[in-house]
From TrEMBL:
UniProt keyword annotation of Protease present: yes
One MF annotation (Gene Ontology) recorded for this entry: peptidase activity
DJ-1/PfpI domain span: 3-168
Keyword Acyltransferase recorded: no
Family: Belongs to the peptidase C56 family.
One of the protein's GO biological processes: proteolysis
Organism: Falsibacillus pallidus
Keyword terms of this UniProt record: Hydrolase, Protease
Protein name (database record): Protease I
Domain of life: Bacteria
SUPFAM superfamilies: Class I glutamine amidotransferase-like
Length: 172
C-alpha cells in the first residue's frame, strides 16, 4: 500500500541523505512531498549535487495528511528547528506514533520537539551529547529502530541500512 511521506527540508541539506531515501521511497511506490517555508521554492544541498523543489508550505502542511516523516541531515534540521512550525509538525508525528526517519543531524529537530526522551536512537557523532541530554539512549550503530516507529542513522554511509528499515516500516 502506497504511503504519503512528508519531507521537511531547506537549503544546505546533506544531498545523499535526501536523495537516497526519497528515491528509495518513490521506487517502492510511495509519494514524497517536500515541505519548507515557501511552496515552489528550490532548495539546494550542501554538496551542490541535489536541488529539491518544494511542494508545500509548512503553513499548509498538516501532519494528519501524511503517513510518515523524513528528516534529512546536513545543516537543514538545525535551521528548521529554529521555526516553531517545523518543531510542532515533527512533534505531531512522534506523538501520533507515525513513522519518523531521521538521519545524521536530522534528530536535531526531534531534540527541539522534546520527543527523544527514553527513545533508542542514533545520529551524527557531533550531536550525540545533545541527544543524550534530550533523554535518548544513544547507540553508535548504522541504524536504530525504536518502538517500531523511529528509524535513525548516523551518516551517508548508513543510507542502505536506513532505507531498508524505513521501507520495512512503510510496508506494515
Amino acid at each position: 500500500m502506497s504511503k504519503k511521506i512528508a519531507v521537511v527540508v531547506t537549503d544546505m541539506f546533506e544531498d545523499s541523505e535526501y536523495t537516497g531515501p526519497a528515491d528509495a521511497f518513490k521506487e517502492a511506490g510511495h509519494e514524497v512531498v517536500n515541505i519548507e517555508k515557501e511552496k515552489g521554492k528550490t532548495v539546494k544541498g550542501k554538496q551542490g549535487d541535489a536541488e529539491v523543489s518544494i511542494d508545500l508550505s509548512i503553513d499548509d502542511a498538516k501532519a494528519s495528511d501524511f503517513d510518515a516523516l523524513l528528516i534529512p541531515g546536513g545543516f537543514s534540521p538545525d535551521q528548521l528547528r529554529d521555526d516553531e512550525r517545523f518543531v510542532k509538525f515533527a512533534k505531531s508525528f512522534m506523538d501520533d506514533k507515525k513513522p519518523v526517519f531521521a538521519i545524521c543531524h536530522g534528530p536535531q529537530l526531534l531534540i527541539t520537539s522534546k520527543t527523544l526522551e527514553g527513545r533508542d536512537a542514533t545520529g551524527y557523532n557531533s550531536i550525540k551529547v545533545d541527544m543524550e541530554y534530550a533523554g535518548a539512549k544513544y547507540a553508535d550503530k548504522e541504524v536504530v529502530v525504536c518502538q517500531n516507529q523511529l528509524v535513525t542513522s548516523r551518516t551517508p554511509d548508513d543510507i542502505p541500512a536506513f532505507n531498508r528499515e524505513a521501507l520495512k516500516l512503510l510496508s506494515e
